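User
Class, as today's exercise, I want you to study this protein, comparing sequence with structure tokens, and judge whether sequence predicts the tokens.
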Amino acid sequence: MSTRLYWEIGKRAFQRQLAYRTANLAGLFTNACFGYLRGSVFIALYQTERSIGGYDVSAAVTFTWVTQALIMVVFLWGWWDVEETIRTGDVVSDLAKPFSYLGFWLARDYGRALYHLLFRCCPILLIGEVMFGLRWPTSPVTWAALALSLTLAVAISFAWRFTLNLTAFWTTDARGIGGLASILSTLLCGLLVPLPYFPDTVRRVVEALPFAGILQIPADVFLERVTGAGLLLALGQQALWAGVMLGATQLLVMAATRRVVVQGG
């Protein structure tokens, strides 16, 4: 019964996104433009180098389009749905409902992510294929691993965004904090450049952080840069961070709930 409840919540979130067709088309156009610009920059970069950080020009361009396509799947920026309910006071009724507050929002996020996977990510990759020619996975195992990797990437991204939203319980400027945090996550998730481009000492640190599991690892799985034991290790890293961050987020929800009760709101 509990599983059916969250399934229905996710399905409603998916259906809700279907109402925003014009916004999706505008976002699709924007993503395609940035994909073209970023791809062109990487092609120019490789005019004097055959390989950088283990990526040749084909892999680098494909990485660019994959990360561009996944921006809305993992929803890197601008998600303030929870913060808005805290500001308006609607969060009180949400917390009083007879199901998991965290599970409710997580199910909604997976419904939203599925919509953007189908109607934003796939078209962007097709546009990238037409414009540049991409390097696609060649093994069914890779596609299965990619599905799991994306599932975990959404969980990590959600936990990060949800935590930033929950700071509204303690501060009046959660979006200001979120803006600064978004700069950090954008730099460290692999969106701007692949993390292997970083110097070795820095790379080892940033690749161990949870942000790598949002874009860098799924993109590397797509490119089949991680296989065998390396693939299991990468997926294990994502699963570990997803579990730790969701667990920490649940503790934060419990603390926020006590704060609401103490304040009588």
Remarks:
- The chain has one domain: 2-263.
